[in-house]
Design goal:
The complex is a heterodimer. Chain A is mainly beta. Helices cover 0% and strands 50% of the residues of chain A. The mean pLDDT of chain A is 90. Classes of the chains: A mainly beta, B mainly beta. The interface between A and B is medium-sized, with 27 and 34 residues.
Chain lengths: 115, 117
């Protein structure tokens, strides 16, 4: 069964600093991986996805993530944090065998950006 | 504009009452999902449906029921059997791609916050 671990339920950075949100996954088959962002009292919005093409994936709002099979990781980064990046971020994995596969979500990381 | 709508945004219920949350999509997606979100616990799958008139239990189905009579609609009923129903409920949908190499990105609605008084 798949699982996702997000290290750090809360991350705080200064505006302009590097953002690094960690995600490790467990899957018995090649995974598809997703990062979603959630602003308060809203639904989830897809930031980026890994679907077995390029291992470095670029998403919206300047975010990117790198798939590292040897480390079973899919960490999310952004070179320079902006105040508008303050939100909760969720990593998710699916088995990727086709069909409407279920997504398994991590518990989320709340990002605070300090001025 | 295509998207997913959930109504109402906020819902209050007295203990012992059933309540139904609405979810509608006009994305022509085959699959629909209901999640429950509690602080610090991420999203947990309640029910999902890959096709009309068919649905499967997720990880926390007890105390909930669903129907899928139309492709566009997937209402969730929170019954009085659900012991702790206060939570944020999210509906999602995805295209039902099949075959190796396909994937199914899920699109989310804005959510319904249910509070039991």
């Amino acid at each position: 069964a798949q699982s996702v671990t997000q290290l750090g339920s809360h991350v705080s950075v200064s505006e302009g600093a590097l953002v690094l949100l960690r995600c490790n996954y467990s899957s018995s088959v090649p995974p598809y991986l997703f990062w979603y962002v959630q602003y308060p009292n809203q639904g989830l919005q897809l930031l980026l996805k890994y679907t077995s093409a390029a291992t470095l994936v670029k998403g919206i709002n300047g975010f990117e993530a790198e798939f590292k099979k040897s480390e079973t990781s899919f960490h999310l980064t952004k070179p320079s944090a902006h105040m508008s990046d303050a939100a909760e971020y969720f990593c998710a994995v699916s088995e990727g065998q086709g069909g409407s596969e279920k997504l398994v979500f991590g518990k989320g990381t709340k990002l605070t950006v300090n001025p | 504009d295509g998207g997913i709508t959930q109504s109402p945004k906020y819902l209050f219920r007295k203990e012992g009452q059933n309540v139904t949350l609405s979810c509608e999509q006009n994305l022509n997606h085959d699959a629909m999902y209901w999640y429950r979100q509690d602080p610090g616990q991420g999203l947990r799958l309640i029910y999902y449906s890959q096709i009309v008139n068919d649905f499967q239990k997720g990880d926390i189905a007890e105390g909930y029921s669903v129907s899928r009579e139309k492709k566009e609609s997937f209402p969730l009923t929170v019954t009085s059997a659900q012991k702790n129903p206060t939570a944020f409920y999210l509906c999602a949908s995805s295209k039902n791609y099949r075959g190796r190499g396909s994937y199914n990105e899920q699109f989310f609605g804005p959510g319904t916050r249910l509070t039991v008084l």
